Every structure is written in structure tokens, then in C-alpha cells.
Fold these 4 entries.
Entry 1:
Amino acid sequence: MTPLRLGIATALVAAAAYALTLPDYGLVSDEGNYLESSRRLFGWGAHLTASVRQGEPGRAFDDDVLGDSWRWGGDRIPHPPFAREVAGLSGWLLFGRTDLLTGYRFLGTLVAGSLAGAVAAWAARRGGAGAGVAGGAAFVLTPRLFAHAHFALTDVLLSALVFLSLLCAAEGGRRTFAAGGGLWGLALATKFSAALLPAVLLPWLLLFRRERLRDLPIFAAAAALAFTAVNPVVWVDPAGAAVEYVRQGVGRRGIALDQLPTFYLGRTYVFRPPWHYPLVMLAATLPPGILALSATGAVAGLRRPQARPAAALALGVAAAFVGALLLPSAPLHDDVRLLLPIFPFLALLAGLGAGALLRARRLGAVAAVAVVAALLEPAVALVRIHPYQASYFSPLVGGLAGAERLGLEVTTLKEVLAPDVYADLNGVLPRGATLDGGPFLHEDLLHAQRFGWLRDDVRVGRDPDSDYLLLVNRRGWFRDTDLAVARTARPAYSVRVDGVPLLALYRLR
């Protein structure tokens, strides 16, 4: 099977797995606001169409109109709009055909599936068919990545655009190189961290593809064109939009809404845990077999001329993104969410590592057994804890229970609050009950009522004298009263994995 066919097959399998399990995950952090933002972006499109028909297209570009659509949310949504455009398009295409959240997320699952296929194809191109199969499997079977592939956030889309941009730059001719620039522009229009790409690409080109250096102006021009095309605020005020983009990208420390708490190794930190947080979280949340294959692929790939360019690029991306998060101005929260662009490159390295083992004649059948064993643990875990893969922890730290003993946050994104959990809560909460979700869940409970998941008669507030308290086990957000209740009271309802509560409902009176 050619690398392209292997990649297409992997993409189809992955996308199907993601799409079929979409209803199993609850609304996660930021998605509620992103839904509203997407609605406003598409409303602006209708406003523009109407303005053009009336012969006054400039009305759609008035400051108040752009502010109410493209700048809605302010510091609550510090990212450019492309991810919300993709999700909004998904919701528009599937409107009335699925439930609201599934429709909003669907195109994202196709993007995630395509990314899995690209990993498999690149690994096969540089390491052989065995490397391609193992690389694609490593991507799909990484539990944390499997969960994030379902969420309409910025992270998986950014990961796909960065990966595909570098794939085009590394493997194609001049036209493909230019296409890579366009993909980079869309990545920049998704999240500011895409600005790290030149720090990886330029040294790599100097080492491996110097002939492409002369095409960098085309790459940059394609990026600028793509970035501008999906950002109407740039059309009106390019200089002001650039200043706003940089401010929101590098000024997060000064934004009040970004002062998020993180519980790490038994202590709560605001905005940034210690510098070793990203390294510890990568080691704690990646399956050990995939980590071992990735390490093998890094060493074997750098030693083998055919695989060296891909291995070097993968290591460069990992170093750039981890290094950026070590800067004191960079936010650190939501465990590995900000590190997701590294994951497809780790899967690529895992594929190269598997390919190296399978080519080692002296190992014989042992190599195949080792590769299967490396992928078996995450495969079993992925199925066993579904749909709570975002709470997966490596056996090296004792799994989920071990992570809780170490003082790590065992759940961060609220995906545990799926519609079936709300159905259970509706069965437990009496009519007219007051429900305290605290600062972490207040807005999400209101979203749930708006979407029809939580009964309208339940009164949502942040009053400690409420009838019930609902806690998602993200310790950094616990108030002192929450911690006292969690330590002393017996929950009226809970969701547990391996004995660890991810969510608990307590009756207060």
C-alpha cells in the first residue's frame, strides 16, 4: 500500500471513530462562548449580504458591527477567528440534522481524522508501511488526543494546520511549499502560538532543503493572504488589527481572565505553575509505550538518512512549543491542551521508531510483539475509560488514582458534563432546587439550561446557601467551602473512574 492510500485509509477510520462517538462528550471549557461567537460571525455574513443588496456594503464594516461580531467576547476569546469559523460552518451545514453540539463539532472530527492520516502517510513515506501503520495508530490511540479530537476548540485545528504546513514545506515542490504557507496563515488565524513555526522551519531548511529558501517570500505571501482572507477586521484596519493580534498573543499575563488557577503537585498556582509543569504533564499523560516508540524513533530517525529530515523537524517542533511555554509570559493551564501541537509529531516519531524496530532483522518477531505491546496499553485504556480519555494518566504515575495522590488535576475541561449526566442530575434534583456550580461551572450550567439539558426550574447561582453543590474535580478552582464539603460529605450523585470522582453532586440542605 502506498503512503497516500495508507494515509487515506487511516483518515477514514479515525474520522469515523471520532464522529460516531461525538455525542458522548459534554460541552467543554470555552465551547459555550465559541458557539455564541460563531453565531455572531455567521450573522455578520448575513448582514454583509443584506448590505451589499442595499448598495451599502460599508455598513457591515462599521466599528459597532465589527465589534459586535468579530470582536465579541473581548478578553474571554483572545484568539483569532478561524477555529470558530470552521465550527460555525459545521453547525450551519448540519443545522437540523443533528443536535446542536454534534453539528458544531463535526467538521473538527474530519480535520482530526485528516491529521491522523497525514501522520500515517508521512511516517510511511520516511519509514515504510509498518512505520505508517504504527504512526497512525499511535495518533488515534493516544487517549488524551482522542478526547480532544471531539472538541470544537482551537487546539486540534492548530495542530493539524501546523503539521500539514510543515509536511508541505518538507516534502513537496514549489507549489506545495506555497500551499504550506497558506496553511501557516490559517494556523496564525487560529492561535498566536503558530508564530513559532518559522523558528522551526528556517533552521530546518538551512540543514535539509536550502533550495527552498528562495521560495520563502512566496511562503510568507501565501500566509499573509490566507490570514487576511479569514479576518475581516484586517481588511478595515491592518495596522490596528496587527497590534491587537500581538497584544492578545503576548500580553496574556496582564489579562485578568487569564489568571487561571492550576492545582499541581499538591499546590494551587495562578497563571503559571513551576517551569517543569509541561514536562511533567507530558510524561504523566502520554502512554509509556508510545513515549518509548517516540524516543526510539528520534534516535533511529536521526541516524537514518531517509528518516532524518522528518525526525529532526518533529524534534524541532517539540522543542519550540515546550520552550515557548517555559517563558514567564506564557500561560500554563488545562494540563496538555497547550501542548497538543506536539502530539502528532510524537506520533510521527513513534511510527519511525516502530519502523526501525520492524526493520531490525536480529529482533525478528520480537520487534512486532514489542510494537503491538507498546500500542496495546493505550488501546485498552481508551476503550475502558471512554468517554473520559481526557482524564487518562500513564501507568508510570499509577494511572488516574496515582495522579490524584500526586496532587495533579484529574479533570480540567468539564467534558464529564455530558447530556446523559445532565439527565441523571435532572432525575436527582427536586423541582425548584437551587444549584451552586461555583465560579468554575456557573456559566456552563446556564449554557446547559439554554441547550435544554438542565431543567429550567433549577435555579443556578453561586450562593453557598444553595440546596445543592455541583463540583467537577478540578482542585485549582475549589473554594475553601467546596473543599470542606468534598472532604466531609457523601455525594448524592457522582461520576467516578477507577474510584476517583470526576464530578460530584452534594446536598447541602
Entry 2:
Amino acid sequence: EVARGCRWGCRFCLVCSINRPYRTADAGRVIELIGQRPETAGSVGLVGANLCDHPELERILSHVAGTGLQLGASSLRLETLDERILQLLRACKVRTVTLAPEAAATGLLASIGKRCDPELLAGTARLVGKAGFEQLKLYYMVGLPGEEAPDRQALVEQVREIRAVLPDRVGLKVSINPFIPKPQTRMQDEPMAGASSIKAAIRQVRRGLADLKGPGVRLQAGAVAESLAQAVISQGDRRLAGAIERACLRGERFLDTLADVGVDTAELLHRKRDPGGTHPWRVVETKI
């Protein structure tokens, strides 16, 4: 773990909310721990919300490259990723660069607290191609509060632009995930889009990218029911205990057990909560 917390403050992000203040591990200590790895280890993972924020990241990456280990790295932040870091990541045998634009429309970006210039993404994609990576992976959310069809069309156009600037040898994988309001975040009281709206959003993105020729785009979208289950567990209270017990011990489908234990998913997930109300998680200690 090279850093804890995050200094960017995105409104939907749990890491930004509960891991304050942002702090980094000493590079010398990180290098020391890498040296204590088992002899059979062929890879090492650096854990942190945004590795590029670490002030001594180049030193750490240079050490990893010198050991011959393959590096596992989490998603990177556009604003702090440059050509030098990309070169070092490639020297560490990283094959895929993962970025999380989350949205393409400037209005949506502002609403979630991610004030990143969309033009940065195309420039970074060019650098990824130049550095010799095998794949670029992008994470987006759909179903954000206030999202409309033109916002999703902006996402489609952004992905098409990225595909156009990447060399054919570089794969492009796009992961589409529904927005889930998380406890302890500044967006905890926002409503989640309904299943039909989420499916319609994913269909729109698929249709918008379906005609791409050549290497194309690999689009990944998880099961909507799974996202709804995650949201219920995220937002629910003690009544969920019975539902979880039935799903685990009796093998019943979790979402099908909710009505029997008194959980109304429409009331729980698809309306805006009163910010002044009592949240089930207010008793949870979150300082990490």
C-alpha cells in the first residue's frame, strides 16, 4: 500500500470520504517491503487510489523495473499521468493502462466533482499508444443523477475519438457500470436509476459503438441485477440480515427475498433521501 486516501475529492467516492487525510508511504519503506517478497513471487502490486499522486513514484517504479518483477497497478488519474510515468510502467511489464473518466459530458463531470478536461483523455491515449501498451481500459458510469440521452451520446463520441487515436495494435476495453450511491459519500442521498433506465443507457452506448470497424471496442457491462443487489446492501439497514441469511443458507435469489423482510427497493434506492434524515450507517466508525 503506497498511499491511503485521495486528494481529488470526487463526490461519489468512498475512499475520498473516509480515508482522510491523504498520506503516502515512504518510498524507502515500500522498496524494503518489495525486497521481502517470497522468492517465487513474479509480480508485485502497488495499492492506492491514484499511484501518480505519490511524490516518489518514479523511484519506486524504477526499482520494480530493475528487479524484473511484473507490476500490478490500479486505475490512474489523467491529470497526473505523463509520458515518463507511462514509460516506467511499461518497463515494469504493465500491459494495460486503466483510466476512469466516469463520464464524458462536462456537466456530469462537474456534478460528481471530477472536473477533468475531457481533452486530456485523447492526449493520454496517444501517449499510451506511443509507449507500446497492449490495451487501454476505460471505466464509465451510467445512470448518474441528472443524466440524459445527450450525456450518453457524449460518452459514445468520446470512446470513438479514443479508438481513432489509438494504434490498431492497442485494444480498447470500455467498462460500463451503474452509479450506486455509497454510504459516507457526498452522493449517499442521491437516487439510483431503475433497472429499465440502466439497461436503456447500456443499449444506447452499445448501438453507438456497434459500427466501429477494425479493432473496434470491447464493451463490458455487468448484470444490472447484481448492481441493484450491491446498492441494496450499500443502502439497507438491519432488515437485510434476514434476506442475506435466506440467500446464503437457503440458496434463494437475494433480490427475491427483500419484500418478505419488509424492504421496498423502490423506496430504498430510487428516491432522493432527506439529507437531514437518520442513516443506518451513522454509527459506523470510518476513520482509516
Entry 3:
Amino acid sequence: MYAGAPLSAPGDEKVGTLCIIDDKSREFTRQQLSLLRDLADCVERELFHHESQQTLIKIRDNEQHLQAVLHNVIDGIITINHTGIIQEANPATETIFGYQLEEMLGQNIKMLMPSDIARQHDGYLQNFQTGGKAKIIGIGREVMGKRKSGETFPLDLAISGIRRGNKNFFVGLVRDITERKKSEKALVKAKEEAEQSTRMKSEFINMMSHELRTPLTVILGYLPLLNNPQKLPPAEVICEIIEDIKVSGNHLLHLINDLLDLSKIEADKMELHREWIDINDIISGILANVQQKATGKNIELINQVTSCQLYVDPVRIRQIIYNLLGNALKFTEQGSVKISSSLQSGMLAISVQDTGMGIKEIDLPTIFDKFHQIDSSSKRKASGTGLGLAITQKLVEIHGGTIEVNSRFGEGTEFIVTLPIKEQ
């Protein structure tokens, strides 16, 4: 004997049968069959209740998972209604903008925007909702945000539109890209500096080629006049030739020495041979050597250096002073060049001040760069490698000192070298 009532799950899906089985044949009354159906209905209700419970558990699990994601994601997530009022925001939004959640809820999203963007925001919303062209919504772009402190900062913004019933809602995803922008800016700057360095090196090589070729051309040009004993020029002409060759040779030697000094400094192989010297003796000797050049240009040399004992390399100190005085005389057409000294907290400050052409403000930050020459154009009259100040700075620093420059274009320049008095 068998009797059964079909079982259906929610949605009218057939899942089985509630049945009665016996080994004896019998007939069921209408009441018994009705009771079987009632039992089947009870089973279906239990099945529905169990499935509902499982569904609720899954919903709760999904909600907890979603909340965990929203609370731990590094991007800010903001929900606003059709008028721009903030409905929801996650913790990352608080971190990004500096507001607590309760300070944002119920407020217009414009509080998180600079004033110029805030003024356009309502128009963006209206434009989107009336079927116009979207400016931000559904597109995504970089915009500026405003923190609670008033600070503005760059952020990536992506907005999606959502329809609930007959109302529009919008979900915005924001990411603070301040650090990314800094990195991009640093990368661009590094690229520009690398390109500038390459250009300066190229200019330096071209300039050095010209500077080295010029004295060699003078020397080699005179040789044919002197290599035939039967056709020598008059004695006075020979003296002029020898003087020109001497000047060109000294200039060539100076260029080569500059390159060798820079090479040693760059390789950290520049050695100092220190001894106690009186700085006034060193400078007085240098001034005596350059006096003729100053007189020839009608420039007054002023010595206001006081006697002071320094433990330094006298050869390199002479090189430092020669470079500074040489530049002062080279770029001064009239007036004076003054060198003075003063004591400053265990340091001796040596100033070389001129009334020359001065240095443009734009050139001051790169004045000590090894591949940089002030006015490297074809109009530049003063010769040289342009390495003098770079070498001078390195020599001063190796001695434990500092060098700085003050200048006004068209009025003059002052270099100040500060050296330690005590042994280093």
C-alpha cells in the first residue's frame, strides 16, 4: 500500500514527496488523505522556514563582508542623494578629508570641495539628471578636494549614478593622490635636471674643445716662423712671439690643471698638505702678483685682511684666492676689488668684493655647478673653462669651510669664504 503528497519548495519547485507505505493493501478515506496533505503542508512550511533562515544567514554574512570591505578599503566611498546631501561615508573618507562621520552626514557634498568647484557642482548634478552631457558623473577625473583644515589637495574621483524608485542617488569613489603627484613632479624635475645636465656637459665639451684649441693654434702658428735659422724674424718680433707663446702655454696649462683638479676631486683623491700659515702673508703675495693686471685696467686693489694663523694647505688656499681675485678682476671694468677678513665664532671669513658686472639672480643657484658657465653665449668675452668656482667650492669644503655669493647684476659681486682656524 502506498500514498503520497508532493512537496514543493518556495517558487513551486518540486523537491520530493511525503509518503505512507505499508505491506498490506487498504484504501484511504478522504479525511486520511486530507490529513496527509496537511502533514505535507507542514513539511513545506518547515522547508521554507529553513531556507529562509539560510538565506538570512547568507544576507547577514554578505552584509558583514561588505561592511568589512567598506571599513578597510583605502579609498573614500561617499553616497549622496539627488540634491547633493551626504547620506553615507566610510572611515577612509574621514581620514582623507579630516571630518568625523557625524560632521558630514546630512551636509552638502560641496563642503569637501574648493569654492570654485563647489560653485559648479549643482550644475553638474542638474545637467546629469536632465539628460545633459556628464562632466564628472560616470566618467571619472582628477579634481581638487578640500580638507577640514582648509587645505586643498588633488584626488581621483569616480562617480556612479543609482536609481532607487523614482529618485537618483550617487556613489563617489575618491582617492587622495597627493603623494603620487609629488612623485610625478619629482620625476619630471629629475628628468629636466638630467636633460639640463646633458646639455651643459655637451656645451662644456664644445667650449673646452675651443679653449684648448685656441692656445695650441697660437703656439703651432708661430712655429713655422722659428724653425728656419736662415729666415728668422727680427729680435723684437721674436720677443713678441715668445711672449705670445708663453701666454698661450700658461693658459693651456691652466686649463689642463683645472681638468686634473676636478678629476681628483670627483674621484675623492685630492690630498691636502696642511701646515700653519699666516693668511695675510698668502694674500699679500697674491695681490702683488695681480697688481699689474689691476693697474692695467685702472682698478684699485684694497687689502683689509688682518693677520691670522690657519692650518691649511697653502697651495690650495692660494688657488682659492687666485680664482676669486682672478674672477673679480676679469669681470670688473672700473672701480675696485677689495679683499677683507673677519673672525666669526672660531672661523675666519674672507671676503672678495668687486664693483663689476655682477651676476643675474637666475644664475646664482647654479654658480658653483661644474658644467655651468655664466653667459655661455657667443657674446661671452672672458675665456676659461668655467670650472674655477666649482673647484674653488670643493677645495673650500675639503678644508671644512663654506663659500657663498652675494651679487646684484650691474653693481658687483661678493664671495665669502669661511675657513676653520683650529686644526681639523
Entry 4:
Amino acid sequence: MKKRELLPLVLGASLLILAAIWLTSSGVLDRLGDWQALNILLSKIGNWSLLFLLAAQAVQVLIPIIPSQLLGMASGFLYGVFWGTVLSGAGVAIGSLVATSLARHYGRPYVERHATPETIDRIDAVSRRFGSWGFFFVALIPFLPTDIGCFVAGLTSLRTRSVILPIMLGRLPGVLALNYLGATSKEISLETMVIITTFTLVVAGILWVFRQPLEAMGHRLLNKLGIH
């Protein structure tokens, strides 16, 4: 990893941590009291928050740099574990359908703008061996690029509707966990929530910067499981 690639991560993480320290020590959060004022504000927004989260979940499939972790927690916070998971799942399903359709229309050169040829070939090999359910493993196994899997699905001869269900089932444990964290976050203080949010963003940045070696770990796991 080159220093110039690490610099944006270090600067971004530093700014987030400084912002979190300021929020928790400046007394700004005390003006909200607890979650009550925030709940009043969200109630005024109404269904716009639902539409925003639905669209954001769809877009984050197409633009992996968007932190899906925060979106999952936000939907759980606003709509509870069950409906938050349903909302997140619907948005991700829409994004997956769009990604698959884009890949079918523009072909491999378009997909290679989002992933390395090695990653594309490896996911394609999994789909050739296991068919549609190969994408279940891609979505389920940590560090493998699930969003890229949606694009690769569009390069196969598999029907779009046959790959969406395995992808969504593979994503379900992660989506459910994030919504559970979001739904239970009201039981903690705003200060703690700021810390958790900052930590989540920093981790998301680290995962993005080191995505290639992490993907390599996922590929090795596939090999150990005989999925290659």
C-alpha cells in the first residue's frame, strides 16, 4: 500500500475522530437532551426518510464506497429490526437488479471499471460451478465483493431473477445484524452513538483502502472450502 493511498484515509479518520471528540465534549448533544428531540425531527421528515433510505441502499450497490453499514443501522433505528431489514433488503435488491442490468447492457469492459479481471474471473468460476447459488457464497463469505458479484451476474447466461434471491439470502445475515444494531441504539446515549458511528466510518474506510488484499483473503477461503 503506497503512502499516497493511505494519506486520504489517515486524514479522513483524523477529521472524523476530531469531530466526534468535539460533539461529545462541546455540549451540542446536550441540547437534544436524549433521543426525544431527534425522534421529533425525524417524525417531521415523515416518509421522505423511507424514500431516501430505499434509494441510498440501491445506490450503494452501484457505488461501493458509500458506507452501507450506516444505512443499515439508520433503517433499523427508524423502522425497527423487521421493517428496517425489509426496507434495506428492498433497496439492495433494486440496486442489485440495476447492477446486473448495467453489466448485461455494457458488457465486461464496464464491469472491469469496478473490479479487477482476477476478481471477475474468480466470481465467474464460482457461478459456473454452482450456478445461481454460487452468488450466495459470494454474498455470504466475508471480504468478497458482493456488489461486484451483482455486476458479474450480468455477464453470465443466468437469468437475472434466478441470481437475485441467492444474493439477497447471502446478504441477509449482515443486513439483519446492522438493523438490529440500529434498532437497539436508542437504548444508548447520543455520545456513545457518535462514537459508534465514527468507528463504523473509519472501519468502512479501512476496508475500502485495503479491499484488494481483503478480497485475496476471501479467495483463499473459497479455495479452502473447495469453492473455486
